[in-house]
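Re: that chain you flagged

S.,

Sorry for the slow reply, it's been a week of failed gels. I finally had a moment to sit down with the sequence you sent. For the record, here it is as I used it:
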Amino acid sequence: MFNDSPDPDLSLFAALITITAISYYLSPRAHTVGEFFRGAGESGEAPDVWTLVLSQVTTWIFARSLLNAGVLGYFYGIAGVLAYAAYYLSFFVGARIVDSLRFRHGADSVQAYLGANFGRLGPRCYNLVVALRLISEVFANLLVVGLLFGQQGSGIYAVTIIATALVTLGYSMLGGLRASLRTDVFQAAILIGLLTVLLAQTMAAEGFSLPAVLTSSPQPDGPGWVLLIVALLQIWSYPLHDPVMMDRGFLADRRVTWLSFHRAGWISLALIVAFGILGVYAGLGKAEGEDLMATLSRLMGPVSAFLINIALFVSAVSTLDSTLASAAKLCVVDIATARPTLVAGRWSMVLFMALGLAMLFTGSDDLYAAVAVSGTASLFLAPVVVFGIWGGWRLRPWTYATAFVAAITGAVIYFLESSGYIGLVGQLAGVEHNYSKLLAICASVLLVGAGAAVCGRVRGRRGEPPAVPAHSAETADGAGNANA
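Prediction finished late last night. Pasting the structure tokens below so you have them in one place:
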């Protein structure tokens, strides 16, 4: 159990009730489609820059992120922290992707661009991967919440998960994306404050040594450094397959959007490194048989352990409401399974929460595996980003299909390899560690995708990228606001 304070259940339940009660209070009831799906204000105005910044921060510093950063630092030292932090360079890549989609290609969504360039195949493949990612986000964050209160499979574990799911679903259904943006600001303020206090406590703790932290990964071929290379390969496609990030890229004008991505990127990098340093500190002082949270509790005391648990809970809840808002938009607006109404959006949220709960109770608890599999599956978008969105190439649909099959195959192979079902990659590449296998898989997928793009480029005048339908186009002065 993560919480080692004298009365963990009571104290954490009190925090849960307080945070969710304030979130409910801050959640406005959506009355229009623009408020529910695009986060518009009552007068139709787009979110301001700091609302978008704090929303991006708290939706990317989610519970799974904090745990992954801490655990990677715990086992692999500073290299593990830098490896996970590298994924947050996605903000800067994502800013350029969004800017190109909107103001070079005139698209008002990722699906609009893919549909114009690859036909029905484009958005269908993309929507499948995005839907699976959203379900996995529900699963992963509820898993962390459950583990804050009890052992996996225990009664208190199940009750806490279901209670959190119902409460978060309730205020998300109330206001959609507008409610998510409003609560994200409050939740981000708590999270930034908690992580700042925790970092200060860590650096002031007995036995903390910054030189020791910085030299905690002495082997240049260690798993942490290998994972850093993997992250640097995956970030070119990773932001495009994150619907929460992409949705926030189409809400405000060009300047506000650009600033929000970059400011959120720097803040998120700092926060994830801060929590990762806690993991490195714990790893340097761990005893045999201890896990991360037990070590931190012993080294820093019950108060710090309690603050860590609160940070994990806040980050989980903030990500859940954003995930549900993106799920509603995906189903109702992007896939267009129903008319864009508030009722349809709310039922979509119920569906995705139910699917996440179903996935949760199958017994899976490997948090980083979900990131690795998701990042590998997203690699089919790398040729789209580099050659299509940025390079302006017109690519034949079969190149997109080839990259998609390669990426999904790679993701499945890595899942089977890391789970111990097969040993194919290890035998072929001559490596043993899962991260080395992941690097070999990612490099192979990218080579296949890039090769297909080079071979499948449409040249000449016919190679000009097709125009996105007029109803999807935006003007360069930022007409992508909530009234568009």
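What I noticed first: Residues 155-204 form the longest helix (50 residues).

Talk soon,
D.
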